[in-house]
Design brief:
Mean pLDDT: 94
Low-confidence stretches: none
Number of strands: 14
Helix content: 25-40%
Number of domains: 2
Oligomer: single chain
Radius of gyration: 22 Å
Number of helices: 17
Strand content: 5-15%
CATH architecture of the largest domain: 3-Layer(aba) Sandwich
CATH superfamily of the largest domain: Type I PLP-dependent aspartate aminotransferase-like (Major domain)
C-alpha cells in the first residue's frame, strides 16, 4: 500500500498549484498564451466544447490556458472547488451578482466597503433593478434585521476598506445560512495568506487580483472562487441561472451537471460568455508571478504595518489610529480569530486638523505614492474624503470610515525605518 502524499502547504501552493511544465515546449514557467482563439481537433470536438460536454479552449474571452493556471492556483490557496479570473475586481462582483440576481431582487452589503463598491451597488446595479440594503459590518444583527423575502445574497469584506475593520465572518455566515442565501466575501484586503473565508462559512470568495495577490501594481484582474458547499438545488430561493433548464445549452441544468463547482461554471458560461470582461493573458501571467511571493510579501507587509501603526499611535500630530494589530484596538481579538497571521497592510489614522491637514500630509510625503490603489510592494497613501469617497455625502463617508481627517496607508515592503521617517517629515508641518 502506497502512502498518500501529504497535502502541500500554503507557501508551496503559491508557487506550484495549477502549474506544470508546458507539454509542448517544456517551459517551466507558465507561458503567456497570447492568442484570441484555439483550433478544434474536429467537428465533434468543437460540438462537445460548445455543448459543455467537454472542457477545453474555444476563445480567450471565455478561457485561456494562462488564465486557467491562475484560477487553479487561487482556488487551491482559498480552499475552493473552482475559480473564474476576470478583468477586474469590479468585474468579479458584477458577474457574481449577474449569476445570482433577477430584476427586483435584493442583497445585503456591509456599509464598510471600498468606495467604488458602494458606488457600484448604489448606482450601476439600479439599471438592472438589483437593490442593495445596507448593514453595519461590525454588527451581525444588523444583517439579520435587513433580511426580506427578496434577499438573495449577503456581501462583506473580510477586512473592510478603508477602515481596516476585521469582520466577524462566522457570525454573518450564520445569518446568511438562516436566511438561506449565499455569503459572498471580498477577501482582497486580507489575501488568502491571512484569511480563508470558506473556513469561516463563506460560500463565494472574490478578489481584486490587482492588489496583494498580484502585488506589484502592474496589472488589473479579479477572481471569483466557488466554495462548492452551497446547495443550489435545495435552496429556499430559486436561483434561475443555476437551477432552470438553460436554453443556451439544450436545456442543461448547471447545478445538476456540475455539482460543487457549478457556480464558477455558471459565471463563466453565462456571465463571462455574454458580457465579456475577460482578463488579458498577460495580466494573468503577471498576477501568477506575483502570487509566487505572496507569503513572503504579506509577512513583511504585516510586520511593517504594525511598526508604523505603533509609531503613529504615539505621535502628537495624530488623533487616533485604527489598526486591528494594536492590542488596544477593538478588533484585536477578532483579528486573532479571523486572520491570525497578521492584521493586514492597510489601515487608517486621523490626522489632527481635519480635511486640510489630511490633504497637506499627503502632498508632503516623498517615499509614499499618492494613488488609488492598495497592496503594492511600494507604500501608498490616499485621503479618501478627497478622492475615492468624494462622491459620497459627508454622512456616508463617516459611516464608511472615510471621514475628513482619515488617512489610508497601504504599507509596502520597504525598510520600516525609511517608511516611518517619511511619515514623520510629512507630519512635521501640520
Amino acid at each position: 500500500m502506497t502512502d498518500q502524499a501529504p497535502t502541500p502547504k500554503f507557501d508551496t501552493l503559491a508557487v506550484h498549484a495549477g502549474a506544470a511544465p508546458d507539454p509542448s515546449t517544456g517551459a517551466r514557467v507558465t507561458p503567456i498564451y497570447q492568442t484570441s482563439s484555439f483550433v478544434f481537433n474536429d467537428a465533434d470536438h468543437a460540438a462537445s466544447l460548445f455543448g459543455l460536454e467537454a472542457f477545453g479552449n474555444i476563445y480567450t474571452r471565455i478561457m485561456n490556458p494562462t488564465q486557467a493556471v491562475l484560477e487553479s492556483r487561487i482556488a487551491a490557496l482559498e480552499g475552493g472547488t473552482a475559480a473564474l479570473a476576470v478583468a477586474s475586481g469590479h468585474a468579479a462582483q458584477f458577474l457574481t451578482f449577474h449569476t445570482l440576481m433577477e430584476p427586483g431582487d435584493e442583497f445585503i452589503a456591509g456599509r464598510q466597503l471600498y468606495g467604488g463598491s458602494v458606488n457600484q451597488f448604489n448606482h450601476a446595479y439600479k439599471k438592472f433593478n438589483w437593490n442593495v440594503a445596507w448593514a453595519d459590518s461590525t454588527d451581525p444583527a444588523s444583517f439579520e434585521a435587513a433580511v426580506t423575502d427578496k434577499t438573495r445574497a449577503i456581501f462583506i469584506e473580510s477586512i473592510a476598506n478603508p477602515g481596516g475593520v476585521i469582520v466577524d465572518i462566522e457570525a454573518i455566515a450564520a445569518v446568511a445560512k438562516k436566511a438561506g442565501v449565499p455569503l459572498i466575501v471580498d477577501n482582497t484586503m486580507a489575501s488568502p495568506y491571512l484569511c480563508q473565508p470558506f473556513q469561516h462559512g463563506a460560500d463565494i470568495v472574490l478578489h481584486s487580483l490587482t492588489k496583494f495577490i498580484g502585488g506589484h501594481g502592474n496589472s488589473i484582474g479579479g477572481i471569483i472562487v466557488d466554495g462548492g458547499k452551497y446547495d443550489w438545488l435545495g435552496s429556499k430561493h430559486r436561483y434561475k441561472t443555476m437551477v432552470e433548464p438553460n436554453d443556451s445549452y439544450n436545456g442543461l441544468v448547471l447545478a445538476e451537471t456540475f455539482g460543487d463547482f457549478a457556480f464558477a461554471i455558471a459565471c463563466r458560461v453565462m456571465g463571462l460568455r455574454d458580457t465579456g470582461p475577460a482578463i488579458a493573458p498577460m495580466n494573468a501571467f503577471l498576477v501568477l508571478n506575483g502570487c509566487e511571493t505572496l507569503p513572503l510579501r504579506m509577512a513583511r507587509h504585516c510586520e511593517n504595518a504594525l511598526a508604523v501603526a505603533e509609531h503613529l499611535s504615539r505621535h502628537d500630530k495624530v488623533e487616533w489610529v485604527n489598526y486591528a494589530g494594536l492590542p488596544d484596538n477593538k478588533f484585536y481579538d477578532l483579528h486573532k480569530k479571523i486572520c491570525p497571521k497578521g492584521a493586514g497592510a492597510v489601515f487608517t489614522f486621523g490626522v489632527k486638523g481635519g480635511y486640510a491637514a489630511g490633504v497637506a500630509f499627503v502632498e508632503k510625503l516623498n517615499l509614499f505614492s499618492h494613488l488609488a490603489n492598495i497592496g503594492d510592494t511600494r507604500s501608498l497613501v490616499i485621503h479618501p474624503a478627497s478622492t475615492t469617497h468624494r462622491q459620497l455625502t459627508p454622512e456616508q463617508r463617516d459611516l464608511a470610515g472615510a471621514g475628513d481627517d482619515v488617512i489610508r496607508l497601504s504599507i509596502g515592503i520597504e525598510d520600516k525605518a525609511d517608511i516611518i521617517a517619511d511619515i514623520d517629515q510629512a507630519l512635521s508641518g501640520n
